[in-house]
Amino acid sequence: SKVMKHVVISLLNFNGLKNTLACLASLKNIKIDNFKLTIVAVDNPSKEEFDLKSGSLGDIPLVVIKNSKNLGFSGGNNAGIKYALSKGADYVLILNNDTYVDKNFIEELLKVANQDNSVGILSSKIYFAPNFEYHKNRYSKNEMGRIIWYAGGEMDWENIIGHNRGVDEVDKGQFDKAGETGLATGCCMLLKKEVFERAGMFDDKYFLYYEDADLTMRAKNKGFKVMYVPKSIIWHKNAGSAGGSGSLLQDYYISRNRLIFGMRFA
Question: CA distances (Å), 199 to each of 82, 194, 213, in order?
């Protein structure tokens, strides 16, 4: 019989236990027929009590890793990735803790991942969670939950700013074709273990922001394809742990990391 592929989800928590628990509640319902799944919750030491314990989430093994200091998005997820690879994972799924998911979202990513050996990284179609849109009053009630946050991404190389395709648009099927894309998003990216073997993990230098773009570029430079998969769907409560959109922390890291990224790739 076919060997079941092992997928490990790396879910990073930083002062966001309420979001993390809601995300785990939605992951509990994932359809796991054709693959093996483990969830690794990584806590960058939060100010709040993080009393999640290793055990299981329904039928899914849950492993809790506590970092001794705040390693940012890059270092925090690297702890999850290292654990995953040590357990022989075929795929690592980086998932923001401020998301919730459609039960088929992993299966749909895997379908596309398995079509082509050169595919290395895949991202889902991502909607704003209702009431987390940038422009709430633009939309009617029945459009909420179908407002696009990410439907593929591109780097604007003149300005070194990543753009999510389709952001703020109501989904009317305009981005329903799977295909290669310029940038995966760290909000939800599935990576084949070969990507880590050949291109490395997240670069700790970034700490927060642009680490997903950096890893996407390194993977592309090693010949991997980066894919957008519209049948895989999740919802995102935007900018959960950085103090919200436009916070000083967010501005600082985005400005600094644009420079690092630009020097490296532009």
Answer: 14, 8, 13
Pairing of strands 60-66, 55-57: antiparallel
H helices within the chain, ranges in order?
A: 17-27, 72-86, 105-113, 193-199, 211-221, 248-265
Helix (H) or strand (E) holding 36: strand 35-43
Tell me, what amino acid is at 128?
Answer: F
**How far is residue 169's CA from residue 152's CA, in Å, rounded to a whole number?**
13
What is the distance between the alpha carbons of residues 193 and 196, in angstroms, rounded to a whole number?
5
Contact 37, 30 (CB under 8 A): yes
A 10 A CB-CB count for 18 gives 12
pTM of the model: 0.96
pLDDT tens string 142-152? 999 999 999 99
Question: From CA 195, how far away is CA 202, in angstroms rounded?
Answer: 11
Per-residue H/E/C for 118-135: CEEEEEEEEEECCCCCCC
- The secondary structure of residue 173, as a DSSP letter, is S
Residue that is written with structure tokens 């997240």 in the block: 202
How many Cα atoms occupy the beta-carbon half-sphere of 11 within 13 Å? 27
Residues sharing a CB contact under 8 Å with residue 132, sequence separation 6 or more, in sequence order: 236, 237, 238
Position 164 scores a pLDDT of 96
Cα 211 to Cα 42, 75, 187, 193, 207: the distances in Å are 17, 10, 11, 17, 8
- The amino acid present at 202, given as its one-letter code, is F
